[in-house]
Amino acid sequence: MSIETRYRRLEEEIAKACMQAGRDPHEVALVAVSKTVGADEVSEAFAAGARNFGENRPDGLLEKAPLHAGATWHFIGNIQSRRIGDIVAHADLVHSLFEERHADKIDAAARAAGKVQDVLIEVNVSGEASKSGRAPDEAALLVEHCLGLANVRVRGLMTMAPQGDLAGARACFELLHTLRDELKAEHSSCEDDRFMHDLSMGMSEDWREGIAAGATIVRIGRAVFDDAFE
Ligand SMILES: *Cc1c(COP(=O)(O)O)cnc(C)c1O
Prior knowledge:
Blueprint: H1 3-20, E1 29-33, H2 39-47, E2 52-55, H3 58-64, E3 72-75, H4 84-90, E4 93-97, H5 100-113, E5 117-122, H6 139-147, E6 152-158, H7 166-186, E7 198-200, H8 207-212, E8 217-220, H9 222-225
């Protein structure tokens, strides 16, 4: 099956899952995670209608982000201080912020670039040592910190669920949703109407659980780009 067919089919499945969950399909953005493929595959997905792409390495952004005017790029990988300039130069949304020191550097780089950087705070809901992200009970501190930075705008939260356990993934996503609502309520006077709007949760194996739990962004790699994925 071609990337085009896979992408279109996935889009339809996502729309169907939204309807089943009583949600408007337009509320959910499908980010095609292109970290394992090259420019040609990105072009195929673009031709199929994909406009949101995700990369987990700055070099992937540098290589692919300039290729298609009109595409939105998401940085979903580990943030390294020395690459923050490159990330800010090319990412429309950074999903993986969880440290104050990186927030400060993003703020400075964004100011130098004349932009305001949209970010999500990555939360380690499951508490697995192998996962990065902020502990849920410490997310509020980072949100507070970011609200003091003029060139950083917090759009919401991101998480990765434990693998191979769909019920566990669903529970993890529900917790992220609750945390998002709490953080939003704590800052109900915030004038930015997209503050804490987004929930980035769900990948190739667990996007259905993400949508059922209120995801506004799903990040999907293999189900779009890997013909062996079923
Ligand atoms: C690779 C990756 C994805 C996509 O994973 P698939 O299982 O290929 O859909 C999503 N989010 C992050 C943070 C990733 O690194």
